[in-house]
Amino acid sequence: MDAKFGEYVKAKRLEKDVNLRKLAEILGIVPAYMSDIEKGRRYPPDREKIYKIAEALSLNDDETNEMFDLAALAKENSISPDLPEYIMGTEKARVALRMARDINADDKDWLKIIEMLEAKEKGDANH
Description:
Distance between the termini: 46 Å
Largest sheet: none
Low-confidence stretches: none
Shape: globular
Strand content: under 5%
CATH class of the largest domain: Mainly Alpha
Radius of gyration: 17 Å
Number of domains: 2
Order of helices and strands: HHHHHHHH
CATH superfamily of the largest domain: lambda repressor-like DNA-binding domains
Number of strands: 0
Structural class: mainly alpha
């Protein structure tokens, strides 16, 4: 089990001056369980609880996404818990991901796709 998720949560919790008991209370878990998560003794919680952590710690979108990625990395062959619903609900996303896998798309290829999506996002924001 990878402890980076718990380390990240603890660092953000301390940075935001939220005590462990308070965070555990917000999540509806006992403090000992929260402590075990932070120490990497337990797997990260489910998607809803991760969203609650992000909200409780006032994390921005980038910090929240990083936390989701760390949660996925804590489990072998796992995907960030915020993505499966979107992927499984969007047929073309699954097609695109499989094509990318099959051609062994690298970061350079994905950067082009990201740039295209960012241009679309900016275009949609202007309308």
